[in-house]
Amino acid sequence: MIQKRANPDHPILEVLQTRWSPRAFADRPVEPDKLKRVLEAARWAASSFNEQPWSFIVATKEQPDEYAKLLACLIEWNQTWAKTAPVLLVTVAKLTFSRNGNKNGMAKHDIGLAVGNLTVQATAEGLYLHQMAGIEPDKVRATYGVPEGYDPLTAIALGYLGDPAVLPADMQAMESAPMVRKPLSQFVFTGRWGEASPVVQ
Amino acid sequence: MIQKRANPDHPILEVLQTRWSPRAFADRPVEPDKLKRVLEAARWAASSFNEQPWSFIVATKEQPDEYAKLLACLIEWNQTWAKTAPVLLVTVAKLTFSRNGNKNGMAKHDIGLAVGNLTVQATAEGLYLHQMAGIEPDKVRATYGVPEGYDPLTAIALGYLGDPAVLPADMQAMESAPMVRKPLSQFVFTGRWGEASPVVQ
Known about the structure:
The structure is a homodimer. Chain A is α+β, with helices and mostly antiparallel strands. In chain A, 32% of the residues lie in helices and 16% in strands.
């Protein structure tokens, strides 16, 4: 089992440091109460005008037909590894505000906030997740009857960490690659675009 | 001082439960080391192809000219309360992938993930933040020289909780309004759009 960690320049919460995105999950279900808490965490995220533009379609291996249905909505390459996860989710964004029907330009951003919350709760529960942009939105739409005005956005594989040996060789190598990030000075600016802020120096 | 909390149906982490979005901030600076950790947390978020499409423009009241410059990029209504915060940030999304120049449809979503991380670290540090969609993107672009291919997205007011008495009367009332969210059964589905999932029942 690979226990990857962030390598921060400034100390951050353990729950943020231990998060990474595995492709190998253990053949072990997620306890129902844990799954409820993980989704509850998403519920309490902030959103523009408190629109809560997020929905989640979820399937677990306890319901094999539902699981197969959701797995089939991922692009093929993602199916090869995501099938090891006991829980799969698809996020769906509501594109307009319920209050006035206007376009919600923050819908995708706010789904990110909700999934951020979900991720923190999951990590604290000993779970890992791997998000995917690689889904077939039209297939999600047709399979589940997603109405106009809503866009399927991402998928999430969720579960306990597994043995990379279950993966094809090329994916095993990706599993053990260290986490890398740009330094703060490359994306925190003051005064002028591109000028590293004094607050990160 | 108002100490608002989420009211979850299932227990979630304290750091997720104590987060809310005040408009009244205390006249107290954010310690430099705390601010570094808050930004460091954003750095370690997940993103599509690890693009890290987020940038932050930041200003603190220690640099009054820079602070005034950033405050002026918010819509007027937001300026009336955000000026109580010791730190202001603007998020900027890179719209294409650095690897191949293709459109990054996850840029806004991934900024949400980064700000989600930032929020959790801030809350753990005793800080609060209030995000705003209400900015003047063209003014940000002109003021800071934000290049083509990048879009100013949101602003964030960050600091310690303050006394609502510093706010206009209508905003004071909003400050004490309870947090409300849709129940899980209204946005977690299995099998078909709109059908509450058994995992949340």
